[in-house]
Amino acid sequence: MSPGGYDKRGGRSISARPVSISGSVARPGEGEGEGESEGRGEEDGGLDAPGRVLPELLAPGLRVVFVGSAAGRVSARRGAYYAGPGNRFWPILAETGLTPRLFAPEAFPALLPLGIGLSDVNARQSGADSSLDPAADDPSGLEARLRAARPAIVAFNGKRPAAAALGRPSRGLRFGRQAEDWAGAACWVLPSTSGLAVRWWDPAPWRDLAAAARG
């Protein structure tokens, strides 16, 4: 059974069962969906959301939930978050100590026992930001689910998802912790880890976020 009890084969959201962030660290690749039963949403209290490109990794009381724009083409094909070539997401988690070592993208369910969640503003499309239909963004649905889960921090991976969720233009956003909370959580905007955004990459806000998440 995978951490959080999501149905990888059906593309469904994960369960909202409580997660301990003080227990043992999950092994890379632990619980990647072998032996899953279908239709776990109601049984485990989770959100059953057919049509999602990637399952939402969400549970009550997480330290931080990272919110991206949408799954890239490689991520959609592999069924794993931040799997595109050159994406810095998994290396920066390891470098900042948010994960105990470098995880492969397919091991993303192992983030839940570490108190880390994952989601996207646009969960039903995939591709580069320039190819996405803004009408497919669902910031209100995301906000409602996050308010129910009550993470300590919501961190946007890039300005595009932050702008969509916060209703503010990208050019007016600054990296780091924002002055106002969002969805009942401390709100951070971070430089995108996408390989397409390499010219704007700066690890410093990620290090600051990691320090805040460790408390």
From TrEMBL:
Q: Which CDD domains match?
A: UDG-F2_TDG_MUG
The molecular function terms in GO held by this entry are: pyrimidine-specific mismatch base pair DNA N-glycosylase activity; uracil DNA N-glycosylase activity
Q: What spans are recorded as compositionally biased (Basic and acidic residues)?
A: 1-10
The answer to whether UniProt assigns keyword DNA damage to this entry is yes
- What is one GO biological process annotated to this record? base-excision repair, AP site formation
Which InterPro entries does the UniProt record give?
MUG/TDG, Uracil-DNA_glycosylase-like, Uracil-DNA_glycosylase-like_sf
Q: What is this protein called?
A: G/U mismatch-specific uracil-DNA glycosylase
